[in-house]
UniProtKB/TrEMBL annotation:
Entry coiled-coil feature ranges: none
Ranges where the CRM domain occurs: 1-80
GO molecular function, one term: RNA binding
Natural source organism: Halovenus carboxidivorans
Pfam families given in the database record: CRS1_YhbY
Protein name, as recorded: RNA-binding protein
UniProt keyword list: RNA-binding
Matches recorded under InterPro entries: RNA-binding_CRM, RNA-binding_domain, YhbY-like_sf
Length: 80
């Protein structure tokens, strides 16, 4: 049995946020959170023009009733 920390570390990115911003991925994120425990998100440079990774992850979490588990570099992990 792997620990929660190990499971988060081993996650593959399943959602990418680009120049269309976070509004373009809210529905997809919501669906992924319905189907899996954690979702790892990568924020491309164009998306980060709207704010840093932590700000963007927090806004996505609020819009999907989720929790930010971790941010590191340009990636974030959310759970619900």
């Amino acid at each position: 049995m792997s620990t929660r920390k190990q499971r988060i570390h081993n996650l593959e990115v399943t959602l990418w946020v680009g120049k269309r911003g976070i509004g373009a991925v809210v529905d997809e994120l919501d669906e992924q959170l319905d189907n899996q425990e954690f979702v790892k998100i990568k924020f491309h440079r164009a998306a980060r023009a709207e704010g840093d990774t932590e700000e963007l992850a927090t806004e996505l979490a609020e819009r999907t009733n989720a929790t930010v588990v971790q941010t590191r570099g340009h990636t974030a992990v959310l759970e619900r």
